Amino acid sequence: MGSRKPFDLILASLLAVLTLGLAFAGVRGISELDTLPRWFIPAGILMALLVPGYALVAGLLPALQGPVVWLLSVALSICLDIVGGLALNSLEQGLQVTTWSAWLGGITLVGCALAFVRRGLAAARQPAPELARAAFDWRGALLFSLSLGLVVLAIFINARSAENAQAAFTQLWAVPVSGADPLALEIGVQNHEKVVKRYNVYVESGGKKIADWSNIELQPDKTWTTVLQFPVQPAKTINVLLFLSETPTVIYRTVKISP
């Protein structure tokens, strides 16, 4: 990887920039899987299983070549997924498309930037092939072993934490009231976050606001419910969106009701 044109790094960087764009777009509903652009499905697979690891391998070992590059890339990417999952799960926003995009996209850009610099220095020095191959054998095996070790360690830590602690979460529901005509919804929020939380609830259909409730304060394990009566039967999908009051532009939970 030391002397060829950096087309691979350019492609990886572009994919990382597009992924980061998702994280900071701030478009309502972008964190929901069924509203993501279609290109994100294959791009997301590449970002989860290959690209971040490839960028780091290119940055840390610019002389590395051959099939081991792809093995290391996949191993490092899986390791980053596990470590990132543990880290993101401890954040306020939790495991969402936006937080995953920021994590994987940021790491990819850092790796690509380092790779651009290291490749430029390697091309200027033009090391002998024998030296490059020797460095590849030793350092590649070491990095591959380290990657596998981190994967095993991350899996072990994740398993232990799942056994010893129950994950904090907030439950949102919207259930049609039996026999109501036109439609009526029972909307509820239950706080299992283990701390006091304030929520905003927003209901829309076809891009038009139907109702909203702000600064709903809930103690741990407490519940808020209300009944929303529609004046006429809605013709489009109803979206019930839940926000944390401290992050009012980031969707925290969503429930969709088909007409």
The overall strand count is 7
> Mind summarizing the main beta sheet?
4 strands, antiparallel
Count of separate DSSP helical elements: 6
Hey, roughly how much beta strand do the residues contain?
15-25%
How many structural domains does the protein architecture include? 2
Largest beta sheet: what is the strand line-up? 4-3-6-7
Poorly predicted tracts of residues: 26-34, 130-137
- What is the end-to-end distance? 55 Å
Structural Rg: 24 Å
Overall, the morphology is elongated
Topology as a string of helices (H) and strands (E): HHHHHHEEEEEEE
Fraction in helix:
40-55%
Mean pLDDT: 77
SS-based class: alpha+beta
Quick rundown:
The chain is of the alpha+beta class and 259 residues long. It has two domains: 158 residues, no CATH class; 89 residues, Sandwich (Immunoglobulin-like), CATH 2.60.40.10.
Structure report:
The chain has 259 residues and is an alpha+beta fold. It folds into two domains: 7-164, no CATH class; 169-257, Immunoglobulin-like (Sandwich). The protein has helices at 7-24, 40-49, 51-60, 67-89, 97-125, 129-164; strands at residues 169-176, 184-192, 197-205, 208-218, 223-229, 238-244, 247-257. It has a four-stranded antiparallel beta sheet with strand order 4-3-6-7, with no helix packed on it. Strands 1-2-5 form a three-stranded antiparallel beta sheet, with no helix packed on it. A hairpin with a 7-residue loop joins strand 1 (169-176) and strand 2. The longest helix has 36 residues, at 129-164. It is elongated. It starts with 6 loop residues before the first helix and ends with a strand.
